[in-house]
């Protein structure tokens, strides 16, 4: 038995040396193949001799680690309890940030109605939607600043804490607004900056603590988006109806602060590791930026973000203004759209594993554009409900698959920089999408105000339907153009890699 144990230990030590040699190849000057054959273990022998006995013992499992470096490495093996806490924290963060972003349509319907406390916002869909797109756009576009900040900061809890504070402060300050420009500063800019600081540290760090079940972990965290929309939409509407908009915003801000504080203390960096591990610099590589693939990828992201937010922002206003639903029913339809979208993200991921991520993403975006043109255009109640469901299903593919396709197309070494820039572009796209749709709609009244006295359709309602049809065409064209850009990225990537593959 002793001889057997000695042999096993010798094999383990030799494997550890070979493992070290493989991991440091990029840091050692290259040699010719002849030299490598002549001195096959030179590098590993030198490195093993330079390592302390305790470090080598850690590699082969001979004895417990005793050095501070070994202690740091042990932190790479989180307990299941910490992983569960991290998943709960990530889910809670997505629930708050994306959940609140996705239900802005409830606020828009109120601000533009005759019940609004913002007198210069009534009927001004373009300006009011710009408040929401400021918040959403800054949440995403902040990546280009937040990711480098994460990489330079040892204790990321501080970044998250500041984000939670600013996000909550923006919501609470919005409750004191009486003019549109007040909302731009509070529920738009201040909220958006805070949401970005809250969002990206947790989203960047969570996958690093999972190896075997990383896909499941990220999927579970992102599912908080749909659940947040499902829960928050009817609650916010109920609070506005039974209290008022001022106390609704104050309660939401205090709730966000109460949830965000414990979340911020859960997340932490792994010692001695870059953010994110193995995914390269936060600076965009010039050679990548000059590729036609990247340019069309950025354009597609811009167009998709612009088109993606239009239905969610105007779903409730269309329900109330054109279909004469109550505002409560409108908020319920928005909640249905959110939960369907959440389930679809997971389903699209499973489908993508079978037929290819790029294929799935392209088809989902193109079909989402077709659903807008086929189901929302001149939609009566039954067809509009079908649109709410089908658009929720189809629109989930892009958001769920974008990060993984970026890694596939540009390589993990460029993931951080490309992902950060693409999300910045998406933020810019979100800023123009809904406001331009509001410009198309123009100033109009809500619900029964657009009907004639005898209850028959008046010119106001017919004219408003025509305007919403123009919005549907505008949105459908944006999404179809985004799908075409991604199809070109698919073709260009295959050409760059030297061959076409049907599954990609």
Determine the number of helices (DSSP H or I, runs of at least 4 residues). 22
Report the uncertain regions.
16-75, 275-279, 448-459
Fourth-level CATH superfamily of the largest domain: MFS general substrate transporter like domains
Determine the N-to-C terminus distance.
51 Å
Q: Round the Cα radius of gyration to an integer and report it.
A: 26 Å
Principal-axes geometry comes out as globular
Helical fraction: over 70%
User: Any idea of the CATH class of the largest domain?
Assistant: Mainly Alpha
For the residues shown, what is the average pLDDT? 77
Order of helices and strands: HHHHHHHHHHHHHHHHHHHHHH
Give me the CATH fold name of the largest domain: Growth Hormone, Chain: A
Please provide the count of β strands: 0
Corresponding CATH architecture of the largest domain: Up-down Bundle
The main pleated sheet reads as: none
- How does the helix and strand content classify structurally? mainly alpha
Protein name: Monocarboxylate transporter
Organism: Irpex rosettiformis
